[in-house]
Amino acid sequence: MKNKNIWIGIYKKKRENKIDVLLKNNILDEKYSEILKENITLPCEIAEQMAENTIGTFSLPFSVATNFLVDKKEFTVPMVIEEPSVVAACSYAAKIISRSGGFSTTIINRKMIGQITLFNIKNIEMALDNIIKNKNKILKLANDSYPSIITRGGGAEDVTTKVFSENNNIFLVVYIIVDVREAMGANIINNMLEGIKPLLEELSSGTSLIAILSNYATESLVNSKCEIDIKYLSNDKKEAINIAQKIHLASQFSKIDIYRATTHNKGIFNGIDSVVIATGNDWRAIEAGGHAFANKNGRYEGLTTWNFNPNTNKIEGELTLPMPIASVGGSIGLNPTVKAAFNILNNPNAKILSSIIVSVGLAQNFAALKALVSTGIQKGHMKLHAKSIALFAGSNPDEVDLVVENLINSKYINLETAKNILKKIRNK
What fold characterizes domain 4-105+222-373? Predict the structure, then answer.
């Protein structure tokens, strides 16, 4: 176990000193510490090859969340996000959860889904029968379309079908289930679909409408659980029980009110997106699949479940999400900061990374709920919000803390007040 004292007061240290803490405690290798110290980001020469009409690169704060214990292994987690308080809240939650045993995760599956939609089919029953009879032929053709995935131990494994009818139009959808190994799988699956499309049109006597990967990755689910002893909620046992009961109720409420569910889930993705971006993965795909999964019961619901167990005096949290995350491909091997992020995480494979990310989402949700049902969300948020305002007002680094202190003690925490405070400080 690492000495937890390394994190005490780290937020007060200069950026270079924070990097040194990671380096000295073997969380970060020296070559990546130089990347971070020099703030080496994605070179424009590479960026130009990644996207059309590139005119530069765009930066966001690159931070680390501390104290994560996932499946009995310690992690320092890189996060890329501009929103104040997220990293601090996530680290606080992880610390409490680690003291109670940490996160326990289960990889329910690790497959991706591609779909080909067919229409103009005269005989649906015959088409379905032909496709099922030729399942092995379809799978072989799919794998022949991307042979390198076979050498890595993956490949297309199953074919299923479904029929939809809408406004007198009948659609026959063919799904292929693919083990994409360490990749997110979009290119793999899309190549496979293009490879089998002519055969499916022949077998169905129909016409292909759409052939593409689905981002609703229900075959790539990850579950994270934790238990939290209520003694970490408050020193006062009565108050701790009250907070635990309220977290339980807030979880229930997120299942029945779409307005609350939306904000509830947005908070989860504050944590998840930050790690997905830091590791060079497709956060839009993760968001799309996650929000679709929130509707799996026919209505949009909060994604986490929290229960208070009065027999053990613990609250039990759980989050299950589609998490088709990758450890290779895309921008992962191109962006130097992404490489540093993987180094901080000790270069996890896709399964371990997905477990970490879902656990971060659960931690972020706990921090938000605890704040909401006790002190209120603004108390912890306000200091960091005030710092953003102080910077926007034009404060120099050595002026920020003093401006923030005066701003918090003022009646109004806004830009005009910050400018007036800064003016007074400089006129002294």
Answer: 3.90.770
